[in-house]
Amino acid sequence: MAVHPNFAIKHIRPITEEGYETFCNDALVDLLRSMDFTYVNITEIFGNWRITALSDPYSESNRFVGAAQQVSQARWEELYKTDESTLMYLDAVQLVALGKFAPGPNTEFTWTAPTRIAISVTIKRHTGGHHIVWEAKGFKGATDGNGNIIHFGGLVT
Questions:
Q1: What is the mean pLDDT of the chain?
Q2: Which of 119, 100, 86, 112 has the alpha carbon at shortest distance from 16?
Q3: What is the pLDDT of residue 78?
Q4: Is residue 86 predicted with pLDDT exceeding 80?
Q5: Which has fewest Cβ within 10 Å: 13, 18, 91, 117?
């Protein structure tokens, strides 16, 4: 796997029906089950993700911001506190391309999406404010010793 599950949970959500179908697969269900989520929890999470995925990022950006706020809050409560948290909404083409991306172990990289990322949302921990980036080209990151993407270093606009 090129994308570490923790990276996916912290930084990626689907957009569009095809993106939702690509992202919300059996492997993700198994991952969430291994984290002690019940099937009821997973069904609720997937339902919320689907509503956002099918929303228009331009006219319904509040849905994307709300979802990013939930992810950020959970991340800060359950994992560790960072100054900000960014969520990228990727379509099926982008998800497949990122899944195949293999920059190598212990590498800093820049990933360029095959198409522009429609919407990315960054939540600021100290102020609770948010910043939307429209049409990002990709993101900077880093891999672990196994070559899995583990670190988000910022959007490439």
A1: 94
A2: 119
A3: 77
A4: yes
A5: 18
* CA atoms of 102 and 14, how far apart (whole Å): 21
* Residue 139 near residue 153, CB atoms below 8 Å: yes
Residue type, 35: M
CATH number listed for the domain at residues 5-156 = 3.10.130
Q: What are phi and psi of 12, to 5 degrees?
A: -130, 135
Query: Which pair of tokens denotes residue 72?
Result: 């950020």
SS3 content of the chain, % helix, strand, coil (to 5): 40, 30, 25
Amino acid occupying residue 38: T
Length of the chain equals 157
CA pair distance 128, 62, nearest whole angstrom: 14
